[in-house]
């Protein structure tokens, strides 16, 4: 009992330390003389790298240029977007559909770029939704979210989405263990040990990027936190950090910090594949959404799926192995060779590095310390390559530069520590401002890191920027890591709260067939209007479809009469431009879902329910030409039951159809 209290007290001290990270010394003179030059990209010049940064609680992804830190674009993934109309227009609403209905805002932590032979290939970025578990795929030709798949049997999709070296799978582990979807979940919360399970999902990625849940593995109830795929020699394996091996269901800050060691779970997914092939998976009834955006119809479709294949880790015995890892591991990172697996225990005073070869040997020789809920536990020493001693406080994440060095963030001591993967010697320390979470080296979690830069994403900004009320911008910090010492060269503010990020050479993305506009002749939208002559207004009962076009600098039609109170009006606006960088906007007074932004060759639909009699103007919201301000029109709204017929025109100052 006394011991227990002491433990609890200790845990509070440690947890307290987590909240009150300290300000590093020398916080003002950390920038050297030529830093500005190193981060400077002259006007009109391109950056060297694209930096894709998760938006955390904003649900978005931000795209920056490096080394300048210039913000290039914000891409809505698990969010509506008051810039592109994502989630507001009729076409994209299905993208945010889930088995819980429409979810317009989620929490997005990790991005992972598609890889070929373990190298980033610039085709797609995958993103996790943490809260309502989903994985999204962003097409890097269009910078648009083109697919979202929901994950059943999951809650808090945090250790996600990490991909295998040829993008065979995008993999996800549940943070919250919960009763599986197909059983009665109406159970006491304190029956955690008995009823709660941790599912990990293997989502197959097809040639065109299309996602499909291949199988799930049912594991003991713990919190899966982060993961990374094996690569090279460890290709075929996946590694997940897990905490709460105590299986607590309340006051986790104390109760899940009791044990000296939690686990890294090693998963032999090649073996799991074999079991699935051999029919060892059971079919489970579930319900999850699969949403696909079709570039030809410019329209998303959402369908519900009802079944997954589930493997039982406990029954199969040789697909999952637990490796003890000190104190609530967070980051789980695999070095470029695939030999070393770094576990970062948030409350640990050292950073353990495991060896893939040793893990394999330990499995072969059954060097186990019993089992955890039926999963073999490999002896710590048998799996360990070594420990980084006295590295700092609160280790979170590690990236690699491809030259044998690892870089780990320390949340509590607010620093990045560079160390040698083989010798485990600490080589350098750099203070960060303040409390870093993730960090990224270009290609830093692939087989071939590009080195050169490291970007640290901080949780707390405090005095780094001009104050902006209670909420301050989050911050990224760019370091030059080409020399022996890490050198801070730039601070830049970020969107939302940045977690993991990916970096790719600019040319890889620029030359991947970037789309400049949609070809009008390929537009298969059911309400496309390919030319002004085809524009029309069609009434079907109370529904009115407006087939509208826009081109510099007018809409067709731009005068519409015969709309009545009680109508539902759909403006299907096709942008006829066939040129790069000429979007048009569309806004009509009183529209409850705001506006449209329509790319060249695209069709987008705004639903409008007029609420009053009168003349309602509409106009283009995107400055498109010198006569942009002339790009406008009128809709006449008459009372319900009015006999004003539908008429529409452009270029005719016509006399009113009726008085
Ligand atoms: Cu460390 Cu959600 Cu990846 Cu953030 S997690 S920091
Ligand atoms: Cu079209 Cu402004």
Q: Give the biggest beta sheet.
A: 10 strands, mixed
Number of helices: 9
Bound molecules: sulfanyl-(tricuprio-$l^{4}-sulfanyl)copper, dinuclear copper ion
Oligomeric grouping of the chains: single chain
Count of β-strands:
45
Look at the structure and name the CATH superfamily of the largest domain.
Answer: YVTN repeat-like/Quinoprotein amine dehydrogenase
Could you say which overall geometry the principal axes of the C-alpha atoms support? globular
Which percent range fits the helix content? under 10%
The count of domains is 2
What fraction strand? 35-45%
The order of strands across the largest sheet is 6-7-8-9-17-18-13-12-11-10
Between the first and last Cα atoms, what is the distance in angstroms?
A: 89 Å
Please state the second-level CATH architecture of the largest domain.
Answer: 7 Propeller
CATH domain fold name of the largest domain = Methylamine Dehydrogenase, Chain H
Class of secondary structure makeup: mainly beta
**Integer-rounded radius of gyration:** 27 Å
CATH class of the largest domain: Mainly Beta
> Average pLDDT across residues?
94
How would you characterize the overall build of this protein?
- There is one protein chain.
- With 659 residues, the chain is mostly beta strands.
- Helices cover 9% and strands 44% of the residues.
- It contains 9 helices and 45 strands.
- The strands form 10 sheets. The chain has a 10-stranded mixed sheet.
- A hairpin with a 2-residue loop joins strand 36 (543-551) and strand 37 (554-556).
- It is globular.
- The model is unreliable at 1-21 (pLDDT under 50).
- The structure holds sulfanyl-(tricuprio-$l^{4}-sulfanyl)copper and dinuclear copper ion.
- Sulfanyl-(tricuprio-$l^{4}-sulfanyl)copper is lined by residues 109-110, 158, 226, 330, 396-397, 437-438, 499-500.
- Dinuclear copper ion (CUA) binds next to loops.
């Amino acid at each position: 009992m006394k011991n227990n209290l002491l433990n609890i007290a200790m845990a509070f001290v440690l947890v307290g330390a987590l909240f009150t990270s300290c300000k590093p010394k020398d916080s003002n003179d950390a920038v050297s003389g030529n830093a500005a030059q190193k981060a400077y990209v002259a006007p009109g010049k391109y950056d060297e790298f694209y930096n894709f940064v998760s938006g955390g609680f904003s649900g978005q992804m931000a795209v920056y240029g490096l080394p300048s830190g210039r913000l290039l674009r914000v891409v809505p993934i698990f969010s509506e977007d008051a810039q592109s109309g994502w989630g507001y227009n009729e076409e994209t609403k299905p993208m945010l559909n889930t088995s819980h209905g429409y979810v317009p805002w989620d929490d997005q932590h990790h991005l992972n770029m598609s890889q070929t032979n373990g190298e980033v290939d610039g085709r797609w970025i995958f993103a996790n939704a943490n809260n309502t578990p989903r994985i999204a795929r962003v097409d890097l030709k269009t910078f648009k979210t083109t697919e979202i798949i929901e994950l059943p049997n999951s809650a808090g999709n945090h250790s996600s989405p990490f991909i295998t070296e040829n993008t065979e799978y995008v993999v996800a582990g549940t943070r919250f263990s919960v009763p599986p979807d197909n059983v009665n979940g109406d159970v006491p919360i304190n029956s955690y040990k008995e009823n709660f399970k941790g599912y990990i999902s293997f989502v197959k990625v097809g040639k065109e990027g299309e996602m499909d849940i291949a199988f799930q593995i049912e594991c003991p109830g713990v919190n899966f936190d982060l993961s990374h795929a094996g690569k090279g020699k460890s290709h075929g394996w996946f590694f997940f950090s897990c905490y709460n091996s105590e299986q607590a269901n309340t006051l986790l800050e104390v109760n899940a910090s009791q044990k000296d060691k939690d686990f890294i779970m090693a998963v032999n997914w090649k073996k799991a594949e074999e079991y699935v092939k051999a029919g060892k998976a059971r079919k489970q009834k579930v319900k999850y959404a699969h949403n696909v955006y079709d570039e030809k119809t410019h329209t998303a479709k959402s369908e519900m799926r009802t079944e997954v294949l589930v493997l039982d880790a406990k029954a199969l015995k040789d697909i999952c192995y637990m490796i003890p890892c000190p104190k609530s591991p967070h980051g789980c990172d695999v070095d470029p060779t695939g030999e070393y697996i770094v576990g970062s225990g948030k409350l640990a005073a050292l950073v353990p590095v495991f060896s893939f070869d040793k893990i394999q040997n330990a499995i072969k020789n059954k060097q186990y310390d019993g089992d955890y809920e039926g999963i073999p536990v490999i002896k710590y020493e048998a799996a360990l390559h070594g420990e980084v001693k006295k590295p700092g406080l609160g280790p979170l994440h590690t990236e690699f530069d491809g030259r044998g060095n690892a870089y780990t963030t320390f949340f509590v001591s607010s620093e990045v520590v560079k160390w040698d993967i083989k010798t485990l010697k600490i080589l350098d320390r750099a203070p960060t401002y303040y409390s870093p979470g993730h960090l990224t080296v270009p290609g830093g979690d692939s087989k071939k890191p590009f080195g050169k830069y490291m970007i640290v994403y901080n949780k707390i900004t405090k005095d780094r920027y001009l104050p902006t009320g209670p909420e301050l911008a989050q911050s990224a910090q760019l370091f030059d890591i080409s020399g022996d010492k890490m050198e801070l060269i730039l601070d830049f503010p970020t969107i939302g709260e940045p977690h993991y990020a990916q970096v790719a050479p600019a040319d890889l993305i620029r030359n991947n067939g970037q789309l400049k506009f949609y070809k009008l002749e390929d537009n298969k939208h059911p309400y496309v209007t390919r030319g002004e002559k085809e524009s029309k207004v069609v009434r079907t009962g109370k529904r009115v479809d407006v087939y509208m076009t826009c081109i510099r600098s007018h809409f067709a039609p731009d005068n519409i009469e015969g709309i009545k109170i009680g109508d539902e009006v759909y403006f299907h606006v096709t942008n006829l431009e066939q040129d790069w960088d000429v979007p048009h906007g569309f806004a009509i007074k009183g529209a409850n879902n705001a506006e449209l932004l329509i790319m060249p060759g695209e069709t987008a639909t705004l639903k409008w329910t007029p609420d009053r009699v009168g003349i309602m103007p509409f106009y283009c919201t995107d400055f498109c030409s010198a006569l942009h301000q002339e790009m406008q029109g009128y809709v006449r709204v008459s009372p319900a039951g009015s006999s004003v017929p539908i008429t529409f025109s452009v270029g005719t100052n016509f006399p009113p159809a009726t008085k």
